[in-house]
Amino acid sequence: MTKRFLQKGNDMTGNIRPVRVAVIGCGAISGIYFENMSKRFSILELAGCCDLNREAAEAVFRQYGIPVLTMEDILSDPSIEIVVNLTTPAAHYSVIRELLSHGKHVYTEKVLAVEREQAAELVALAKEKGLLLCAAPDTFLGAAGQTARFAVESGLIGEVTSCVAVLQRDAGLLAEKFPYTAKRGGGIGIDVGIYYATLLLSVLGPAAAVSGMAKTHEPERVHYFTSKGQFGEPYTVEAETLLAATVQFRSGAVGSLHFNSASIRTEKPQVTLFGTQGILYLPDPNFFGGRVMVLAKGQSEPYVLPATHAYDGNDRGLGVAEMAWALRKGRTPRTHGEMAYHALELLTGAVESGQTGICYRMKSDFVLQPPLPRGYMGADYAMSEPEAA
After folding, report:
1. Which secondary structure element, helix H or strand E, spans residue 273, and what is its range?
2. What DSSP element (H or E) covers 44?
3. In the predicted model, what is the mean pLDDT of the chain?
């Protein structure tokens, strides 16, 4: 890791300077980012927002008072240190590459890039320039994910021998309302399964190999969503609607993934870790909170494990704040690009395995960063405490 990104900084009073942040992309997901980043995290100072649709950016200005900037404004302003990329997946590669090329640290919505090779290029470029590249999902930093990690690392369920992650939904009209979900990188396995993969990796560490299968149910479809006047027009779903895989973790645990968006959604999302001394039941990893339950050896019913960490609401933007604290304290962020790339490689490796009929051997690795400090409930507690450095 280079030292270039270690931008520790205090103001004249000795306090840590907030990190100035700009946002590119003012679409549907941006609202909760602006809400949380502008009100909850003292380490962040919103410098501006940008969108190809200027009206969307101006709506942000009217609601939050955040200045409307152009891409050129952001790239040329040396005071803007981190840029949050909230564009659609197809645009991630070009946007992130330009930002890194101009010396900006980047936090992006998932995934790093649609193509695995492009994601690898971005990680390498950030390393070459001594910049931070981080990516969502950051939900594993929430109360549920961190409590689950504490339970595993404290030996509560013994050695984890296997795990299972299941997600199913009826996404029949989703591709019409949000067209990017029909494109590469927007399917149930990559766009949503990334939450499940990241959570498992954040608890169990890197994967060694994956065997999988992916398919697209009814790729040729007709529009039924009429608000845009497209009723009856044909369109093609390029993204996977089903991804199933078996994962071998380097820890020795074996995992099973099952993601299906052509279902009737009668089954709740499931993430379960099976250990030699107990079973750990986790809530939907698309959220920060939820009940973490343990079935201990010799017991007939599971019990709810009290949360060991904070952030159990809609805390998107937490990853940006944690990244900003890492920038100031000179440490590796917990949502660092190597982990994000490993999660993407795991899922795309499962797709490749199905195409070739050969088990995919993971080529990347990452260092699992320490968990957040326990026992604090303040907005900035986890990143500002010295234990997190």
Report:
1. strand 270-275
2. strand 44-50
3. 90
